């Protein structure tokens, strides 16, 4: 009987540890999604920047370009993960990946 309880306790501990390590991944995703939404709002207020970044995402890392666009530089300083996402995954940022995200993750809120 004690062996069965020990196994159950061990399995529960492993399960709890797995849940604890999974939580930051969801949290990170939610955080990035919210930052990208803020970036979409920023781009609506700066349509020229939106067009230029969509056509050439590497501009997000250009010091010369960022110096010409102080608001963008400030935004990226506050949200460096968005800057990395623009450069590394522009199709996500400028496509529907984050805009349709609520439907993709809807099952989590149930």
List the helices and strands and how they pair.
Elements: H1 2-45, H2 47-55, H3 63-68, H4 70-78, H5 80-88, H6 90-94, H7 101-104
Largest sheet: none
With helices defined by DSSP (H or I, 4 residues minimum), what is the helix count?
7
Q: What's the average pLDDT?
A: 80
Distance between the termini: 37 Å
Task: Categorize the overall geometry.
Answer: elongated
Order of helices and strands: HHHHHHH
Please state the structural category: mainly alpha
Radius of gyration: 20 Å
Give a count of the beta strands, DSSP E runs of length 2 or more. 0
Describe this structure in words.
There is one protein chain. Helix 4 (70-78) packs across helix 5. This protein has one domain (27-109). 12% of the residues are buried. Helix content is 78%, strand content 0%. With 110 residues, the protein is mainly alpha-helical. Mean pLDDT is 80; it is low at 101-110.
């Amino acid at each position: 009987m004690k062996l069965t309880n020990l196994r159950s306790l061990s399995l529960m501990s492993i399960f709890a540890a797995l849940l604890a390590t999974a939580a930051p991944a969801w949290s990170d995703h939610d955080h990035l999604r919210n930052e990208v939404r803020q970036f979409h709002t920023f781009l609506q207020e700066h349509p020229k920047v939106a067009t230029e970044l969509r056509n050439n995402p590497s501009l997000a890392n250009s010091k010369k370009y960022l110096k010409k666009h102080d608001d963008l530089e400030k935004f990226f300083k506050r949200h460096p993960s968005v800057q990395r996402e623009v450069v590394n995954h522009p199709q996500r940022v400028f496509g529907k990946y984050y805009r349709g995200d609520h439907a993709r993750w809807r099952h989590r809120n149930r």
